[in-house]
Write a structure and sequence with these properties.
One of its GO terms (cellular component) is chloroplast stroma. The chain is α/β, with parallel strands linked by helices and 1053 residues long. The chain is built from 33 helices and 33 strands. α2 crosses α3, α5 crosses α7 and α19 crosses α21. The radius of gyration is 30 Å and the shape is globular.
Length: 1053
């Protein structure tokens, strides 16, 4: 943070115990998890859409907003809540604010019992008195000249929360602001907690002092001198730290879809795991704490255990590293540790049942690591012989692997996992980024375990297939083509990921090889950005529409929706079930990731045990449980986890990190660096050559897990998994003590709830939830159209359409893609629709589909189109000027990978968002045009909204700027803005406008062509770095005589 101004990145998820379960002391902040938006209130991209976000803070008394007056403006405005010592000193001298410094210490000289509670009450009374005496600024401070072993600092989050709640209860909160001066705050999560529970600004004096000491240390000086670290001054190091904190705060706000820090301050958008009722009532009233936990006295003891170490001679020499992030001997326990990895490797590679038993025993004897470790299984039935239990071959069909993208992990790992899952009848997940069609056919050329089709893999068998049964549709829509969708057994909509919920991602250009670029329909070396939200999901109704679209293109594939456990997930899951999803997946916070900010890995998302419990209960209460399969994942390692999840209500079970370990991962935890030593999570050829795994290893693992499940079912007296799904009565608290508290409350998980009316197998085997009667099915039953598809003929049809007809042409596209692939259809369907089209008109078009709409269309026109032609034009004699009217809705061409689109009129917001290769001409757009584009070409013959080309890393845009208003609207973070100088670029622009006029009869396009020499100089060309050397953008290919490229425009806000 101090050296680069960035929050640190890590990988592999959070596999240490919750703070309340840990044997190591934790700061109070670690008991809190950040909330995040799922489906509704979509996340914001703080990097590309920063124009809507602000960290501005106002200090001082707030008056009645309904009574205008100059006194309401009598406040101190800060640009951010991060203060340095000089800022704090200035505030302390402000006569208007009348600041009052309140020390935050408690005295344990007479014993720990009751000491923290007494000090909190005294602090609150002092705050109350100060505000009543006219102070508008309370400064809570743990700074002191002389520190005493018997006077520890109150956890600052507890102090802030207590004062905040006390002032609210006494009607004084708006009369003063709270500022914190603390040594206890140094990470983005800690800042967010303090602000979320009432602080307006924070001065992290010890963190700033650490920056100064770090910069002056011999080690840092030598690294900078040797060029191994950027050279920064002491002042710059402190500024970098503050910059990293501010960026992190914006990201935390954006996860909840919140734009302004003022909306986050005091909003308490956190969940608590491990604090008891007395702590919550005094400082965090209103926050959800599902499992109880530490009392005030127990919290005081944990605080004291930290404090007294400061007075030890050992600590004076070196601070203890608890190993909370990276595993270290003697540090915090990690679920995925070297010993566990070695035991598992030995069991699966040697195919040794005794070795797997040792692995089982190791897991059984581990320290309490997750909530389910506090539970055990008890049955009132007598054990039965294992031979009566359903076979392992049946159980493994319930197993899935995590959605790991080809890019985050290597091709070798990805394909080995898929082959193993297909052998056992389970399901692997493609992750984001598409899939190579070569993987969809069974291997027939295997000799001695090797195949020329997949020469980089070992241990193959004839009949193996490397296809992923579950194909993921993520926010970036990379590689989501009609053929990809049509070849799926299941389609997963990834709303969130356990290790980084509410965030998007970015695959760096150096990881985008030619192979990966081909799969993702991009260019090699071009960074690929996935937005935080799906831009076609801003509500539960929007999610229902995407589910409808996917059912339309592949009516045989079940659609799953992946959510992350948090309080309130039951309500979201009910909406998902009503939205016609077939499967709901609940991911725990301890899922893995290839790369994520540390604060997201550690401090967002909840345990799947609670998320699954809430989802199962809520669905049953609403009569929806039988409609959906419940799948759960997050830290699964054994048959014990499977049986626990089944008893809590899950039908299917996902394994992520452990599947990678079984195929060779050694838990080096450097996935985010591209330097994986065994080639599991690297794209470097020399490292991938070291990949040790074979599909058989993972097959062995899952068969061992299934046998373990069989053994447990036999002991419980049940013959099949169906019999225990949702049977909470099998769960009992385990007689085990947790070091920090005896007050953990598991009653929520153990509460009685009805079981589903259908068996788990019936729920899993039910038919796909269809879309009902749709226009596409009527058209496909037309003999002419079906003959044209079957025999690749040309056909022309005119059809009336209404706005209740949604995702029209999607079913056509799926049928053609399944039979011919994305580019193999040689026929031609020339379909003209008249009327008003519903949402997702022309979605997932393939080459050979020429679709024309005379009328208007709703949102998502041309979503995911891979080819063909889509023309939208208004009816004749409309009575309005077509180029001034909006005739297609928002988010058109989202994730398009090919084809052409011509619109005579304007489009709504986010036109061509995440466009890969499509070409389009439109006569005006709303905000965020061309956002996240990675290829293709967009021509706009009219005005655009704000934030044009944000996150645009590929492709070209040509925008007509007749009134000289475009420049301030362009997001210049990535793209360069220049006139259309290159002859090839001019030719491309003119040819697209000519095609537009020909297809739509556009009067605007006709006027531009008629007076070409006048209009050409009015076009701007937006060029990302990846396109600068192309003939269309590079001026070296020819020169023209008018206005040079735009240079040096300063940023405007």
């Amino acid at each position: 943070m101090a050296s680069q101004g960035k929050e640190s990145t890590f990988c592999m998820g959070d596999d240490i115990p919750l703070a309340v379960l840990s044997s190591k002391p934790h700061m109070l902040f670690d008991y809190f998890k950040q909330r995040f938006a799922q489906v509704t209130n979509p996340a914001i991209d703080p990097l590309r859409e920063g124009l809507v976000m602000s960290l501005e803070v106002h200090l001082g008394k707030r008056g009645n907003i309904l009574e205008a007056g100059p006194e309401n403006a009598s406040q101190v405005n800060l640009s951010s809540p991060v203060l340095n010592e000089g800022d704090l000193e200035s505030l302390l001298k402000d006569p208007l604010l009348k600041p009052q410094v309140l020390p935050t210490f408690f005295n344990v000289g007479k014993g720990v019992y009751g000491s923290l509670e007494k000090s909190l009450y005294k602090l609150c009374e002092a705050a109350d008195e100060a505000v009543r005496n006219g102070s508008q600024l309370l400064v809570l401070s743990d700074r002191a000249d002389d520190l005493e072993a018997t006077r520890p600092a109150i956890p600052m989050l507890l102090a802030v929360g207590a004062v905040h709640q006390h002032l609210i209860q006494n009607g004084l909160r708006v009369a003063a602001s709270i500022v914190v001066d603390t040594a206890q705050c140094f990470s983005t999560h800690q800042f967010a907690c303090l602000i979320g529970y009432g602080a307006s600004a924070i001065c992290p004096y010890l963190a700033l002092e650490t920056c100064r000491q770090w910069r002056l240390s011999n080690k840092t000086v030598n690294l900078m001198r040797n060029g191994k670290m950027p050279t920064v001054t002491i002042e710059q190091a402190q500024k970098n730290f503050c910059k990293a904190i501010k960026s992190g705060l914006l990201k935390i706000l954006s996860k909840m879809g919140i734009s302004l820090l003022s909306s986050y301050c005091g909003a308490q958008i956190f969940e608590i795991y491990g604090l008891g009722k007395d702590v919550v009532d005094i400082a965090f009233c209103g926050s959800k704490s599902s499992i109880g936990g530490l009392t005030l006295d127990e919290l005081a003891r944990e605080t004291l255990s930290f404090w007294i170490k400061a007075f030890s001679e050992d600590t004076a020499k070196r601070l203890e590293n608890y190993g909370f992030i990276q595993f270290r001997p003697g540090g915090e326990y990690h679920g995925n540790n070297p010993e566990m990895s070695k035991l598992l490797h030995k069991a699966v590679r040697q195919k040794s049942e005794s070795a797997y038993s040792i692995y089982q025993q190791y897991l059984a004897n581990r320290p309490v690591n997750v909530i389910r470790d506090l539970l055990e299984l008890k049955s009132n039935r007598s054990p039965i012989p294992v031979g009566r239990v359903e076979p392992a071959s049946s159980i493994v069909k319930r197993f899935c692997t995590g959605g790991m993208s080809l890019g985050a992990i290597s091709r070798e790992t990805h394909e080995a996992i898929a082959i193993a899952m297909n052998r056992i009848g389970g399901k692997s997940n493609s992750g984001e980024g598409g899939e190579d069609p070569i993987r969809w056919k069974p291997l027939t050329d295997v000799v001695d375990g090797y195949s020329s089709t997949l020469p980089h893999l070992r241990g193959l068998q004839n009949g193996d297939t490397a296809t992923s049964a579950i194909k993921q549709v993520a926010s970036g829509r990379f590689g989501v083509t009609p053929t990809f969708l049509a070849n799926a057994d299941q389609l997963e909509i990834k709303i969130a990921q356990g290790a980084k919920p509410g965030e998007g991602g970015q695959l760096p250009g150096k990881k985008v090889s030619a192979y990966i670029a081909g799969l993702r329909k991009s260019k090699p070396g071009v960074p690929l950005i996935s937005p935080p939200p799906h831009h076609d999901i801003y509500s539960i109704e929007d999610l229902a529409q995407l589910i409808y679209d996917l059912h339309q293109v592949n009516p045989k594939a079940k659609v799953s929706v992946k959510l992350v456990a948090e309080a309130g997930i039951g309500t979201v899951a009910s909406g998902v079930a009503k939205g016609n999803a077939d499967i709901i997946q609940i991911s725990g916070h301890d899922g893995g990731t290839g790369a994520s900010p540390v604060s997201s890995i550690k401090h967002a998302g909840g345990p799947w045990e609670l998320g699954l419990t809430e989802t199962h209960q809520t669905l049953i209460e609403n009569g929806l449980r039988e409609r959906v399969v419940l799948r759960v994942d997050g830290g699964f390692k054994s048959g014990f986890d499977v049986v626990m999840a089944a008893a809590m209500g899950a039908d299917e079970y996902g394994f992520g990190s452990v599947a990678m370990i079984a195929t060779g991962c050694v838990m080096a935890r450097i996935c985010h660096t591209n330097n994986c030593p065994v080639g599991v999570a690297s794209q470097r050829e020399e490292l991938r050559a070291r990949f040790p795994g074979v599909p058989g290893d993972l097959v062995n693992f899952f068969l061992y897990v299934a046998e373990e499940v069989r053994g447990m079912l036999a002991q419980l007296g049940y013959e099949k998994l169906d019999d225990i799904v949702g049977r909470r009565e099998l769960l009992r608290p385990r007689g085990i003590s947790v070091m920090k508290t005896q007050h953990i409350d598991l009653s929520y998980i153990l509460s009685d709830v009805d079981i589903p009316k259908w068996s788990s197998t019936m729920i899993r085997n039910q038919e796909v939830h269809g879309n009902g009667p749709v226009l596409d099915e009527v058209l496909l039953s037309d003999p002419q159209l079906s003959d044209a598809i079957e025999n690749e003929k040309v056909v022309n049809k005119t059809i009336q359409i209404y706005n209740t007809d949604r995702a029209v042409c999607g079913r056509f596209a799926g049928v053609i893609a399944k039979k011919y692939g994305d580019a193999g259809f040689a026929g031609q369907l020339n379909l003209t629709f008249t009327g008003s089209a519903g949402q997702s008109f022309g979605c997932f078009l393939t080459p050979g589909m020429n679709i024309r709409l005379v009328g208007e269309a709703n949102d998502y026109v041309g979503k995911g189109m891979a080819g063909g032609e889509l023309v939208v034009t208004p009816v004749e004699n409309t009575g309005f000027c077509p180029e001034e009217a909006t005739i297609v809705g928002n988010t058109c061409l989202y994730g398009a990978t090919g084809g052409q689109m011509f619109v005579r009129g304007k489009a709504g917001e986010r036109f061509a968002v995440r466009n890969s290769l499509a070409q389009a001409v439109v006569e005006g757009t709303g905000d965020h045009c061309c956002e996240y584009m990675t290829g293709g070409c967009v021509v706009v013959l009219g005005k655009v909204g704000r934030n044009v080309a944000a996150g645009m890393t590929g492709g070209l845009a040509y925008i007509l700027d007749e009134d000289d208003t475009l420049i301030p609207k362009v997001n210049k973070e990535i793209v360069k803005i220049q006139r259309v100088l290159a002859p090839v670029g001019q030719t491309l622009l003119k040819s697209l406008i000519e095609a537009h006029v020909e297809k739509t009869g556009s009067s605007k396009g006709f006027a531009v062509l008629k007076d070409w020499d006048k209009y050409l100089p009015l076009f701007w060309q937006l060029v990302p770095p990846s396109e600068e050397d192309t003939p269309e953008a590079c001026t070296e290919y020819g020169q023209v005589s008018f206005q040079p490229a735009f240079e040096g425009e300063t940023k405007r806000t």
